[in-house]
Amino acid sequence: MVNFFDTTLRDGEQSPGVSLTPEQKLLIAKELDLLGVDVIEAGSPATSEGEREGIKIVAKEGLNAEICVFARSLKKDVDLALGCDVDSVHLVVPSSDVHIEKKLKKDRKTVLKTAVDTVEYAKDHGLIVELSGEDASRADFNFLKKLYSKTIEAGADRLCFCDTVGVLLPERTEEIFGSLSKLGVPVSVHCHNDFGLATANSIAAIKAGALQVHVTVNGIGERAGNTSLEEVVMVLEVLYNSKSMNTRIVKENLFHISKLVSRLTKMEVAPNKSIVGDNAFTHESGIHVHGINSDSSAYEPMPPEIVGRERRFVFGKHTGGASVELALKELGLKADKKQLNKIVDTVKGIGDKGKRVTDADLQTIAESVLEIESNPRIKLSDLTVVSGKMIMPTASIKLDIDGNMVIEAGTGVGPVDAAINALRKATQGVTEIQLEGYHVDAIRGGTDALVEVSVELSRGDKVISAKGANVDIIIASIEALIQGINRLY
Ligand code: MN
Predict the structure, then answer these.
(1) 105 vs 94, 102, 486, CA distance in Å?
(2) Are residues 139 and 22 in the same domain?
(3) What does 196-229 look like in DSSP terms, one character per residue?
(4) Alpha-helix runs per DSSP H in 155-270
(5) Is the dihedral of CA 85, 90, 15, 209 positive or negative?
(6) Would you call 372 exposed, middle or buried from its count of C-beta atoms within 10 A (0-12, 13-18, 19+)?
(7) Boundaries of domain holding 73
């Protein structure tokens, strides 16, 4: 049984360019709690007043998880942690000579003494202490063990071995944890993904006796990131699949929390990222889709539902008749053999030009082949946007919804945002739709070139994608949204 120490809100937030508001931190912390992680590292109190605010509201929420904060080996950091009313401190002590001598300009003896004093101080004030050896993977192992045993004597409840720059190998990790797991207190593993080995090293540590693993949602974190929560959970649950490797994590929530973290941190997940990437359960190739329709295990290591996802088919030059037929069935359309071939040929033709065919494109193609007059319920009648340096971007929109004219206005951080907000207001009450993704592709050329906007919309569990293309980026955005809304509505 391994414990999960989630540091999305601390090490994850240390990703370049990421900054979460206190409300956003709380939102993520609540979801982590529902997911079932054991410890939430909510932040680093020494960072700023805003950071402390965020930690305090997370600590006050009364979550099941232990609420922890990062602290350096300094009494003032422990005091700041106490001021946030948290359960525990993740006390990080530099352990390699490069950190001790070059970064801190100190020596091993001083570091050891300060660490012992700080642990005693934190324990005297009622905190749970997890003591980390920072850059432990490059430290002198004998000094590291001395640091650990002295701080255990001083009262440290748990230890952590940090591979701060991501240089561990699985074999070495196994040796290290085989030795550390004999120290008498639970040991954690904290890995970074600089060589893409964070998950493999964390698993090696767990197998060798680590009782807790430090992770972040989507593997976000400094540089190449931290160990990814969803990867460790699924490796243990699906590949090891034994009682001792049971994680107690609510796996069906993994995709949901991945989306939430990616949206709030504005860190997009790579399409080919395992478990949570866009393509992880998406199929295009005709042969694969045919195989999946007969038995999904043919080209999938696990069913997507297990992590709260759905299987998706995209269309392009590899598309075969089987996947188009399945998609048409979902759209409630029926094509005969000849019509189906024509639809497939059109899709392949677009794919050959290097384009991806979205669900909305497929519907349009199918409807024109099947000669169905599609009559959208929402039509754009007019759109006016004003923006400038001295005025708040404002848009007014006129829609024809089922024959009724609806006029609304909206403001935003920029003209596109303003237009989308106006559209949201105008369609409010008609339909509840969530914008999941927004992507702009400028088709190369001058400033008068065509711009293609792709959006992903959801309503309940249904997710669809749609596209708009126009020389005007605002019109292209609104067209993509209206096309998508019409399909969901
Ligand atoms: Mn780290």
Answers:
(1) 11, 5, 64
(2) yes
(3) S-HHHHHHHHHHTT--EEEEBGGG--STT-B-BH
(4) 170-180, 198-207, 229-234, 254-265
(5) negative
(6) exposed
(7) 3-265
Ligand 1 centre to CA of 157 (Å) is 20
357 is written with which tokens?
């065919």
- Distance (angstroms) between ligand 1 centre and the Cα of 243 equals 29
CA of 211 to the centre of ligand 1 (A): 18
Both 111 and 212 in a single domain? yes
**Which pair of structure tokens corresponds to residue 280?**
């992880």
User: What gap in Å lies between CA 281 and CA 13, rounded to an integer?
Assistant: 27
Euclidean distance between CA atoms 426 and 470, whole angstroms = 22
Span 473-482, pLDDT tens digits: 999 899 899 9
User: How far is ligand 1, taken at its centre, from the CA of residue 194, in Å?
Assistant: 11
Give the chain's residues under pLDDT 70. Answer: 285-289, 372-374, 442-445
Euclidean distance between the first and final Cα of the chain, in Å? Answer: 46
- Please tell me the distance from the alpha carbon of residue 57 to that of residue 275, in angstroms, as a whole number: 31
Q: Which residues surround ligand 1, an ion (CB under 5 A)?
A: 11
Q: In this structure, are 394 and 357 located in the same domain?
A: no
Could you tell me which of 269, 266, 216 has the C-alpha nearest to residue 18? 266
Question: What's the CA-to-centroid distance between 16 and ligand 1, angstroms?
Answer: 13
Separation of 432 CA from ligand 1 center, angstroms? 40
Task: Tell me how far apart the alpha carbons of residues 344 and 56 are, in angstroms, rounded to a whole number.
Answer: 56
Number of structural domains the chain divides into:
3
Q: Where do we find the tokens 């255990």?
A: 152
User: How many Cβ atoms from other residues are within 10 Å of residue 173's Cβ?
Assistant: 26
| Full-model pTM | 0.77
Spatial distance between the Cα atoms of 364 and 435, rounded to a whole number of angstroms: 21
Instruction: Compute the distance from residue 276 Cα to the ligand 1 centre, in Å.
Output: 22
pLDDT tens figures, 125-148: 999 999 999 999 999 999 999 999
Q: Angle at CA 393, nearest 5°, toward 455 and 441?
A: 30
Domain boundary among 344, 369, 394: 369
Mark which of 369, 397, 418 sits at the end of a domain: 369
Q: What is the DSSP letter of 487?
A: H
Whether residue 451 contacts residue 478, with contact meaning beta carbons closer than 8 Å, is answered with: no
